[in-house]
Amino acid sequence: MAALAPLAEPDSRRGSDYSRLSRRVSAAGLLERRTGWYVARIALTVGLFAVGWIAFAAVGDSWWQLAVAVFLAGATTQVAFLGHDAGHRQMFRNRRASEVAGLLAGNLAIGLSYGWWVDKHNRHHANPNHEHDDPDVGAGALVWTSEQALATRGFGRWLARRQAYLFFPMLLLEGLALHVASVRALTDGTPMRHRRAEAILLALHTAGYLGALFTVLSPGRALAFLVVHQGLWGLYMGCSFAPNHKGMPMVGDGDDLDFLRKQVLTSRNVRGGALVDFALGGLNYQIEHHLFPSMPRGNLGRAQPIVAEYCAEQGIPYEQTGLFDSYRQALRHLHAVGAPLRKGLVTEGR
């Protein structure tokens, strides 16, 4: 079984510009663990998740459960953010503690394979927005480059033409896609350190989740709860990650960028204060997160002015915008990618 490298800090040898920035950030104490902050964050998140399921048990077989499903969609995403932090070792330096937290948050609590996600996310962090090496911009239900759009056929081409309009509705299926990918990863050779444990925890999650729904609720209400909960969870997850890189420059094989520029030029920060920080799980500080993946979430906002000032000194564009404008930029990129298909530059049969 192949061992999976943890999501850790990039090697400072990747470039002297990055090394100087790293020293500034380290001197400010921003790479140190924040145990108390994470104790409070874990308690809050687990508390919200538990309140949701306690409410589920208390409400019983009622259509009011759809309101509980909406609340649990938000709580489930907050649990996923904890799994993300564990994967980056933001919470604990110890690998074992990080893996236990990730497996409990991912596999057991929400039914998402921690090992599959870490493998995929490692590749994304190594080559953000690289059209061949970043799995987050590989051709799939959505296309991210004109070349990907021109390669589509049939229903895929129909989607590519309209993908900017269909983006948010399609995110309602993201939760299902994550569950399916998690199960596939158990058998397709994806590197995992704890494949058997992952399989057991995913099975326990599935049995517990479906068992609770169909024990407490009538079949129709159980299905309605499942659709609302899973659909809104996928939508929330997609809306949390979409502002970060979508619509930012794509990187090709011929682009020669050092680590600092590769991470900054392909990432976008989202302004908005404490509410946005909470809603997006700290991912709104995407530039700082990509430069210092193991930096505790609570330190990202403090690192932001240091990184922005350094980028200004180096003449490196530093993108930061509001939440709704970040979505506008992402949708504009998706719309532009499909333009050749809409303009009839290619025929349906090609």
What does this structure look like?
It is a single chain. The chain is mostly helical. Helix content is 65%, strand content 1%. The chain has 16 helices and two strands. It has helices at residues 16-27, 35-59, 65-87, 95-110, 114-126, 146-150, 154-171, 174-185, 195-216, 219-245, 259-265, 274-279, 286-291, 300-314, 323-337, 339-342, and strands spanning 269-270, 320-321. A two-stranded parallel sheet has the order 1-2. Helix 2 runs antiparallel to helix 3, helix 7 packs antiparallel against helix 15 and helix 8 (174-185) crosses helix 10. The longest helix has 27 residues, at 219-245. The chain is globular and about 60 Å long. Mean pLDDT is 91; it is low at 1-15.
Concise summary:
By secondary structure, the protein is mainly α.
Task: For the structure shown, list the relevant keywords.
350 residues; mainly alpha; two-stranded parallel ribbon
Distance between the termini: 43 Å
Question: Residue share in helices?
Answer: 55-70%
Report the order of strands and helices.
Answer: HHHHHHHHHHHEHHHEHH
What summary fits the major beta sheet? 2 strands, parallel
Strand order of the largest sheet: 1-2
How confident overall, as mean pLDDT? 91
Helix/strand-derived category reads: mainly alpha
The number of helical segments is 16
Strand content: under 5%
> What characteristic shape results from the CA principal axes?
globular
Radius of gyration: 21 Å
Number of strands: 2
The unreliable regions are 1-15
Topology:
Blueprint: H1 16-27, H2 35-59, H3 65-87, H4 95-110, H5 114-126, H6 146-150, H7 154-171, H8 174-185, H9 195-216, H10 219-245, H11 259-265, E1 269-270, H12 274-279, H13 286-291, H14 300-314, E2 320-321, H15 323-337, H16 339-342
Helix pairs in contact: 1-14, 2-3, 3-4, 3-10, 4-9, 7-10, 7-15, 8-10, 9-10, 10-15
